[in-house]
């Protein structure tokens, strides 16, 4: 049995006719940049999330950058975020000359711990940027309450959580600005890079649309400094073909994730779903002792695994100037030593999942 970590081929075969038709429609009309599919996708993304505005952008990293720029984050400002995430989260803060201020995680959800948030706020804090890691939203009720008290905007880094919900509201529509990624392996993925930003604020939406096209409000007129953040029409077309069946995939992900947890709960630390949350399991991530040995044993049994993420941001060489060494954020560091992600996608059948579970139990011996 050949087991895929993420099986994009199975998804393509399932949707082949629609995807091919959508791509060929773009090839026929030839509007490869900001073609009609981009606007159509934005309308459908807004309807799906419930946000007033959805703006397609070139990738999830630029989504964060555009959000920060729209809020006026600049050199010398501080933006609070988590150290337990992909580097793009902290990287975009630093790229603007601002300082990422890290807050340790809640060890159950792996997301920023709201109980530690207020202590990190200073007069230089310009925004709070929680990450909805692995496919479960951060605690936005608590985070938004603290942000409102201090007059701060909140950006959701929802690169892994599109399709997840919290108390009935979907990721992307939980705070001032939501962002997501459509990287191929994400819950909703295109066939290259892609992303989106979401907001209910008309003025912020206008700014983000302008920033996306070099700060332009009309042809060759640039009120603000922007960047090239456009979503390719072909990627929008792929996403339009995938959206009609996306909610079915969200349901399948939740079922498969819950089944994993039931089968593995006695041998490993399985994901904990917070009250009011749904989970899209962008990664199905467990905690194990002796991770290197477990991964090696699983590799020998034909089971691919991955680690998201072994080195927290404060320990990355790129952030060495922050002066936060080992022990600065012990919960993020502990998670980085223990987490391991298993194969996860909406087409994972029970027999394959049973084989993976059997191999994990054997590897944990």
Automatic annotation (TrEMBL):
Which CDD domains would you find in this protein's record? Answer: AHBA_syn
Coiled coil residues, start to end: none
Q: Which UniProt keywords apply?
A: Aminotransferase, Pyridoxal phosphate, Transferase
GO molecular function term, any single one: transaminase activity
Q: Name one Pfam family in it.
A: DegT_DnrJ_EryC1
What family is it from?
A: Belongs to the DegT/DnrJ/EryC1 family.
Q: What is this protein called?
A: DegT/DnrJ/EryC1/StrS family aminotransferase
Query: Which organism's genome codes for this protein?
Result: Vogesella margarita
């Amino acid at each position: 049995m050949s087991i895929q970590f993420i099986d994009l081929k199975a998804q393509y075969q399932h949707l082949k006719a629609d995807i091919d038709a959508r791509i060929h429609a773009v090839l026929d009309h030839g509007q490869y940049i900001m073609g009609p599919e981009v606007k159509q996708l934005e309308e459908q993304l807004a309807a799906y999330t419930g946000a007033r505005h959805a703006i397609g952008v070139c990738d999830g990293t630029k989504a964060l950058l555009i959000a920060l720029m729209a809020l006026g984050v600049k050199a010398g400002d501080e933006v609070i975020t988590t150290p337990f995430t992909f580097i793009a989260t902290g990287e975009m803060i630093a790229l603007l000359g601002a300082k990422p201020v890290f807050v340790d995680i809640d060890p159950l959800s792996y997301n920023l711990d709201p109980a530690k948030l207020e202590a990190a706020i200073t007069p230089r804090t310009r925004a709070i940027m929680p990450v909805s890691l692995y496919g479960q939203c951060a605690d936005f009720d608590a985070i938004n309450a603290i942000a409102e008290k201090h007059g701060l905007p909140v950006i959701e880094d929802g690169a892994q959580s599109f399709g997840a919900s919290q108390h009935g509201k979907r990721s992307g529509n939980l705070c001032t600005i939501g962002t997501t990624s459509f990287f191929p392996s994400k819950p909703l993925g295109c066939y290259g890079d892609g992303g989106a930003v979401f907001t209910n604020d008309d003025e912020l939406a206008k700014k983000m649309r302008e920033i996306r096209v070099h700060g332009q409000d009309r042809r060759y007129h640039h009120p603000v400094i922007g960047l090239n953040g456009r979503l390719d029409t072909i990627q929008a077309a792929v996403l339009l073909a995938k959206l009609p069946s996306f909610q079915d995939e969200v349901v399948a992900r939740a079922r498969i994730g819950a089944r994993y947890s039931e089968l593995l709960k006695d041998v490993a630390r399985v994901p904990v779903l917070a009250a009011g949350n749904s989970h899209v399991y962008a990664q199905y991530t467990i905690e194990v002792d002796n991770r290197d040995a477990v991964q090696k044993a699983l590799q020998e049994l034909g089971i691919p695994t991955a680690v998201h993420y072994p080195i927290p941001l404060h320990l990355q060489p790129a952030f060495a100037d922050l002066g936060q060494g080992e022990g600065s954020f012990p919960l993020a560091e502990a998670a980085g030593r223990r987490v391991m992600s298993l194969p996860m996608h909406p087409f994972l059948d029970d027999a394959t999942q049973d084989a993976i579970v059997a191999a994990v139990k054997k590897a944990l011996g």
